[in-house]
Design a protein that fits this description.
It contains four helices and two strands; from the N terminus they run αααββα.
Length: about 110
Amino acid sequence: MREVATGVASALRASIKIEFEMSYPPSVCDPEMAEQLAASSRSLVGAESVFESRPENGREDFSFVLQKVPGAMLWLGVKKRSGRSRSRCTLPPSISTIGAALGSSTLAGLRSTT
């Protein structure tokens, strides 16, 4: 990025100063919370519909919450269409019902373990 920006600025007879700022912390899920969420998900929608995601570098506001309390997050209802990126996904009409049931199930599971 620095090389391209410097080259463009130079072509325009200008100078440029680039500073990178880390404004979001990494999103680190608590392992126990993540397993409880996964177990509730498998129970509700079936194990074949639950996948562990790989770490990504995207920014997420929830990162600030995860710094203060144990938690976990998920992508609910994201179904990748063949040959397309995640930005072009379909959401089933029942997604809000599934989300509410998943939240209730996860909370119930947490209460039973404490």
